[in-house]
Amino acid sequence: MSPHRTLVVASLAIVPIFAGCLGSDVFEAPEATAEHEADISFATYYIARRDLRRCAYPSCGGFFVSAVNQEKTVCADGTSAAECYVADIQFSSILQLAGVEGTIREAIGVQRESTRAILFGDLFPGQSGLGSLSLRFAWVALETADLRGGFHRVWHNGVVCVAAPCPSFSQEFLNADGAVRTIHEIDLKEVPGNGRDDFDSGRALFSTLGMILTGQNVVIENYGPAGDATVLQATQGFLPIILPTIRGRGGVSVDDGPVIGRQPVGGGGGGGGGEGGSGGIRNTNVQ
Hints:
The protein is mainly beta. It is built from five helices and 19 strands. Strand 10 (117-124) and strand 11 (132-140) form a beta hairpin.
């Protein structure tokens, strides 16, 4: 089964204004085009580590990449291995325009088990023949943590209910069959950095890009009037390297997503069975 999956980023085709996270300034991109959308439409999700071997470049000094949720990765030469060497990373035009190459490179650590970057792209031989990663997009964590559990992309699906729990989040298990399931809540209390001002989970989850979370689903029985709840207990959280502006009717920017420390719109689902609304983010570390 091929690990390649399609990521439709409608916000990039509609909203031309992006805010760079992780300390970068607000970025005003040129009008998004079909070329930009195609740039990030078909690829594989990878984690990576820097190559610290001491030999002449390009044979050394690049990166080792591995497909998440997979035991083997298909390398640029068509062979399969636990991880594949690439001599360089080629950034997509949208990432170059945003000026986030340095942030992404810094987030790639020396151990893939604790990397702060999820890389969405594909491998090809490159000019050196040693492999190159064509990077379409990236998600970056604010702080380092051991990666435990599966890798999931999660986003708010707009569902609002009259009784909790509410299946307000869509969840994709990365590099699998592309199937999307619904869950009720996301528990971020174990994610490092979740109390920081720049941990903009609400804005990320309400965009089509979503967040990438490591962790596992648990079922909480008798969660509320609507029955049991499926909660993703996250151990690490990766934010989109470029966050699209959320727009309401008339093109006015809005911030109506759940954010750390407050209930989501609708008033429900913030951390226990209750009276409906939208599913929420559980974060007991923040008052």
